[in-house]
Amino acid sequence: VGIVTETGDNWARVNTIINDNANVSASILHSQDNMIVTGSMELIEKGVISYSDLLDTNNDTAEGDKVVTSDISSKYLPGILIGYVDTVETDPNNMTKSGMITPVVDFEHLSEVLVITELKQDTEK
Length: 125
Fold this sequence. Notes:
single chain, about 120 residues, mainly beta, six-stranded antiparallel β-barrel, two-stranded antiparallel ribbon, 1 helix, 9 strands
């Protein structure tokens, strides 16, 4: 849902990916093509969030494709499911694509989240 920005003894403040000032590096799961997911409180009321700057190298991104966090930024762990492609539009530059994503999180009814505090280290046997 986002990143922890502040903590207390038994609470945490989270900047969610739907906030107007949120930008998340993401990718299409099957192709690993990168994009930027941008938060919008106005769009989430319609049940979607936007993406842009998708370099669809094989021109095969389609409705229903999984969108996950990418490994470009250290803000988010890579591979966390954000949602599914809802629409795909070619940008005026004919080099990138943009559109809408249906998020997997129901932000309107969100009451509990899992906070990752440590990464499991690979161990050799």
